[in-house]
């Protein structure tokens, strides 16, 4: 068990110079899905994701000393004070206060912007919680000493991100990340993500992920509620086993660059996630007619053209189209001519990316 609690991280004098730290952190898209958790955001099965580029959150934390003792912060989203967003951050700060006890001595002004619409079904909590965690680790380094090597810094940031939102712990690493114990990879842990860049063929390092926004409406079920429903789902145990088996075969395919097997497993995972929601009690049907139309059109297109383009889904109606860089022109045309009519006027053209950036 990793233990980051550290009661020594207390500011001795009140002579802290106010300062500001900014991180930009991308979202990620899971290929093997995390769906089902226990304890403090610990996953029931291992998951694997691509780190994205353009779907990201930029968060600045300005910190200043204060005389009273306790957690205090203001939160601004796109320049507007948003108290309705505070509970998630309060929750992260409370749950990590023994890791960063000095936070009780500071007032934080947190300013955040997303490059994509909030709750468009793309994982905004992943990029935002990971950006917050990176800022908190950087503040620790500014006030005290370096956390350690770069690897140790990111490991801690991933651990803290997980406490904010499970999938956030995978956003810390470039290209791809694995989270959750998996017998074949000794370093894999339930407590933090690990880099998976070196486990995959270069063809995946420039993969595209075009996010077709079928509906910009707010999600009808929060991820946390969705995970909770797995506890009573009769397929749960089989699902957790299946995720491990798929992880094994997906990693083999990703290592060798076997795009067909990759695509088959990734699409199966997306449909399994939705099948699990459909078989929960209460059940959730998060795909929209446009989601199905896109999937059907894509499968026909793939049969006809042999272009290795595949879909995955998050816990929402939007479709992620995954394909190698070399097909980007023809995919642009296909999306424009045949798929955009199913979209809510919005496509985020994203791709696998280099991970978070200190600004
Ligand atoms: C469907 O990480 O958003 O995107 O841990 O409750 O914050 P919490 O859930 P969250 O769940 C993400 C679920 C998913 C699959 C995935 O990203 O692995």
Describe the structure.
The protein is α+β, with helices and mostly antiparallel strands and 359 residues long. 34% of the residues lie in helices and 23% in strands. It contains 8 helices and 14 strands. The strands form 3 sheets. Strands 1, 4, 5, 6, 7, 8, 9 and 14 form an 8-stranded mixed beta sheet that branches. A 4-stranded antiparallel beta sheet has the order 11-12-10-13. It is globular and about 70 Å long. The site of ligand DP6 has 18 residues, from helix 4.
Mean pLDDT: 94
SS class: alpha+beta
Name of the CATH first level of the largest domain: Alpha Beta
What is CATH's topology name of the largest domain?
Ribosomal Protein S5, domain 2
The whole-angstrom Rg is: 20 Å
The run of helices and strands is EEEEEEHEHHEEEHHHHEEHEE
Fraction in beta strands = 15-25%
Summary, kept brief:
This protein has helices at 86-95, 124-143, 150-164, 223-229, 236-256, 259-278, 289-305, 328-339, and strands spanning 19-32, 37-38, 42-43, 47-65, 72-77, 80-81, 106-114, 176-179, 193-195, 208-212, 310-313, 319-323, 347-351, 357-358.
Features:
Alpha-Beta Plaits, 23% strand, 4-stranded antiparallel beta sheet, 8-stranded mixed beta sheet, 2 domains, Ribosomal Protein S5, domain 2, globular, alpha+beta, binds ligand DP6, 14 strands, 34% helix, 359 residues
């Amino acid at each position: 068990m990793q233990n980051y609690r550290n009661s020594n991280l207390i500011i001795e004098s009140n002579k802290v110079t106010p300062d500001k730290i900014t991180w930009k952190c991308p979202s990620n898209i899971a290929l093997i899905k995390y769906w089902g958790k226990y304890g403090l955001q610990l996953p029931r099965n291992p998951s694997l994701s691509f780190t994205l580029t353009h779907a990201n959150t930029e968060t600045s934390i300005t910190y200043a000393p204060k005389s009273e003792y306790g957690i205090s912060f203001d939160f601004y989203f796109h320049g507007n004070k948003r108290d309705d967003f505070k509970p998630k951050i309060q929750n992260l700060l409370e749950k990590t206060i023994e890791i960063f006890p000095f936070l009780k001595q500071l007032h934080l002004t947190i300013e955040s912007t997303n490059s994509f619409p909030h709750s468009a079904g793309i994982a905004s909590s992943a990029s935002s919680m990971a950006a917050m965690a990176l800022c908190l680790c950087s503040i620790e380094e500014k006030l005290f000493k370096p956390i350690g090597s770069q690897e140790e810094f990111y490991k801690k940031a991933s651990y803290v991100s997980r406490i904010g939102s499970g999938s956030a712990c995978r956003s810390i690493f470039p290209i791809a990340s694995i989270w959750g114990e998996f017998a074949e990879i000794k370093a894999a842990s339930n407590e933090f993500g690990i880099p998976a860049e070196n486990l995959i063929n270069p063809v995946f390092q420039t993969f595209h992920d075009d996010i077709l926004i079928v509906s910009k409406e707010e999600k009808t079920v929060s991820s946390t509620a969705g995970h909770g429903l797995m506890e009573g789902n009769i397929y749960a145990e089989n699902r957790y086993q299946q995720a491990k088996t798929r992880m094994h075969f997906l990693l083999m395919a990703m290592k060798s660059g076997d795009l067909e097997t990759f695509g088959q497993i990734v699409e199966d995972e997306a449909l399994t996630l939705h099948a699990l929601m459909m078989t929960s009690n209460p059940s959730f049907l998060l795909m929209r007619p446009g989601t199905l139309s896109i999937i059907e059109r894509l499968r026909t297109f793939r049969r006809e053209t042999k272009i290795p383009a595949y879909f995955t889904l998050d816990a929402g109606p939007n479709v992620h189209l995954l394909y190698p860089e070399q097909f980007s022109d023809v995919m642009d045309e296909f999306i424009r001519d045949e798929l955009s009519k199913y979209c809510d006027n919005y496509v985020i053209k994203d791709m696998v990316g280099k991970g978070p950036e200190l600004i």
